[in-house]
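Budget justification aside, the reviewers requested a transparent look at the raw inputs and outputs of the sequence design task funded under Objective 1. We therefore reproduce one unedited record. The lines immediately below are the structure tokens for a 118-residue chain.
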């Protein structure tokens, strides 16, 4: 049984952690300390998000995107399903990587293919 609220909090905390590393100004830090639940929806904060996103490297940006996608899917049947094979992602994996979009098998297959293309 997936606890949607717990997962959402975990995802938002991970997202916040990524942004914290590039937060420099007082305004950025204030935004990070703002209410954890309203953070995602409030539109006035978009400027800050865009500025912080700009400072993230490619890997960090990909992580934020994965987290945002997981937040979007959360609460629907899509969350916790592998985007590749459609099978349920094991709970043990979601506990460690709540933003996981693929099961272990598909992710490793993807990594192997990417490595072969290089
Ligand atoms: Zn899969």
């Amino acid at each position: 049984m997936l606890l949607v609220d717990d997962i959402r909090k975990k995802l938002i905390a991970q997202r916040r952690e990524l942004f914290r590393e590039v937060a420099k100004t007082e305004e950025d830090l204030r935004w990070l300390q703002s209410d954890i639940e309203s953070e995602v929806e409030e539109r006035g904060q978009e400027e800050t998000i865009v500025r912080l996103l700009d400072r993230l490297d490619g890997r960090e940006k990909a992580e934020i995107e994965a987290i945002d996608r997981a937040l979007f899917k959360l609460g629907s049947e899509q969350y916790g399903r592998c985007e590749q094979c459609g099978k349920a992602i094991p709970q043990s994996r979601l506990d460690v990587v709540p933003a996981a979009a693929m099961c272990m098998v598909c992710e490793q297959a993807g990594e192997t293919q990417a490595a072969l293309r290089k």
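Residues 4-20 form the longest helix (17 residues). The pocket of zinc ion is lined by residues 82, 84-85, 87, 102-103, 105-106 (CB under 6 Å). Computational costs for records of this kind are itemized in the attached budget.
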